[in-house]
Amino acid sequence: MKKMSFKERLKSIGTGGIIIRAFLIWFVIAVLIFPNANLLISVFFKNGEFSTSVFGKLISSERAMRSLENSFILAISLVVTVSIVGILLVMFTEYFDIKGAKILKVGYMSTLVYGGIILCTGYKFIYGANGIFTKILLGVNPNIDPKWFTGYFAVMFIMTFACTSNHIVFLTNAVRQIDYQNIEAARNMGASFGTILFKVVLPVLKPILFAITILTFLTGLGAMAAPLIVGGESFQTINPMIITFAQSSYSREIAALLAIILGIATVILLSIMNKMEKGGNYISISKTKSKIRKQKITNPVANFIAHALAYFLFVIYTAPILLVIIYSFSDSSSIKNATLSFGSLTLQNYKILFTNANVFKPYVISIIYSLLAAVIGAIIAVLVSRIIHKSKGRFAAALEYSMMIPWLLPSTLIALGIMITYDTPRILMGNKVLVGSVGILLLAYIIVKIPFSLRMIKAAFFGVEASLEESARCMGSSSFYTMRRVIMPIILPSILSIIVLNFISMLVEYDLTVFLYHPLLQPLGIVIKSASDENASLNAQAMTFVYAVVLIIISTAVLYFTKGKKSRKN
């Protein structure tokens, strides 16, 4: 086949294709590459010369060094605690014969329907200085410090139960695919219950467990909500310190360096995970011969302990969400005194939400930002996926890899890159200053959701049979017509699912928002965080519960319609 010239390739692409490619090139350079490159230059190049003076600033800053130490301590601790709790949850619901396992699983999965800010706020209102559990403790022992639930222990406690969602999602599927014949064979050979569990079952899950462990470690390194809300002065991690240092022009480069260190750690660990995944042996969990059956715990003592622990964990998971719901119907005095009574129940909080424009405003702001970002991100992902699907050249490959940049970088690094780069007029942005504008937060939301959207929509594209497009082409249909009338109807359900999932995930986004939000347009994440502070008004605290309940309802409904319907069809 004769190789096409550059002019011939341009002609084959068409005017519309050229415009789309030009837009995507601009997007990659202006949004994904230049801000991050400029951040590196601003940190390591002073007056046009390479400089490492920022390392001296970092080392001399006790708070910065302590935050680095705390982040790694937290990450290592979470690897241990989350692995133990996460494996137990999956064993209780999928492997052991535990009574009420379906109900238990619903409770264990509750963290999937509300964000970190809401979760931390819920735990704080239980165990914090004015929490209901703290009130009980003070009644037993008045000498207990009301602020006992702060620092390292509080952060680790909350994040341990917040980070088990990966075990629930991924490890559950792995357990269900274990070949039951292997278990039967081991039992017939005289292996004990414990031997089968530790020598047959758990080794099969190693590839999945390794990947989850890496993700847990990264979550600990990038912890934001928990250290901010319950960490106190004694236990602040990298991301909260980045927020603190970024507020001053003098210490902003320290904030940038901390973000870069976090980004480098993320890239290294994700690379290790990717390499391990490629080299791992998944045969044992992918070729299922016999459906696994739940194992009865024959020892009465062990069976009692397993049931007690399973329901104890259920209480820990569900208590925050139940109290958030109850307190959303309580008056201010009940919230202040951490008391519950039928006489204090009221609908006034919900009435205020839906009748007071100022109270409802954060919802409107978050919905608009989240919806626009989800839709625009999906559109960009569709355009890129179409190019990747049609072309196998260098441009398509470079475009795909470029769009994955936000996946490798922490949100704080992305936010700082945009802040430092576009606080002055730039030709790439039409000589407009983006910092302080309404659109800068929208841009950041789009950036962080591009990788996920692209991966999912790309998979949908490659699920379309090539013969359909080929038939349309043979009938004289243009590329645009084929895309609109043949391909889009097939991939539209996947696109809509991605839009709603991204929409929900950004409703209470905080990591990016805290850097880039407009002071007059505060989204929900900022409002909820402010209401969790000790000096927040009782009315603000009451509305936090209402915000959380409405968000839980929305998230649950979205998950039901996107996942529930699909499972019923299957």
Question: Can you characterise this structure?
Answer:
With 570 residues, the protein is mainly α. It has two domains: 220 residues, MetI-like fold; 247 residues, MetI-like (MetI-like fold). It has 28 helices and two strands. It has a two-stranded antiparallel ribbon. A hairpin with a 2-residue loop joins strand 1 and strand 2. The chain is globular, with a radius of gyration of 26 Å.
Keywords:
single chain; 570 residues; mainly alpha; MetI-like fold; 2 domains; two-stranded antiparallel sheet; disordered C terminus
3D shape? globular
| Distinct helical segment count | 28
Largest sheet: spatial strand order? 1-2
Distance between the termini: 44 Å
Note the beta-strand portion: under 5%
Main beta sheet strand tally, sense and closure: 2 strands, antiparallel
CATH superfamily membership of the largest domain, which one? MetI-like
CATH class of the largest domain: Mainly Alpha
Instruction: Determine the CATH topology of the largest domain.
Output: MetI-like fold
Q: Helix-strand pattern, N to C?
A: HEEHHHHHHHHHHHHHHHHHHHHHHHHHHH
Write down the Rg.
Answer: 26 Å
Q: Determine the mean pLDDT.
A: 81
Q: Using the 3D structure, state the CATH architecture of the largest domain.
A: Orthogonal Bundle
- Fraction in helix: over 70%
What structural category do the secondary elements indicate?
Answer: mainly alpha
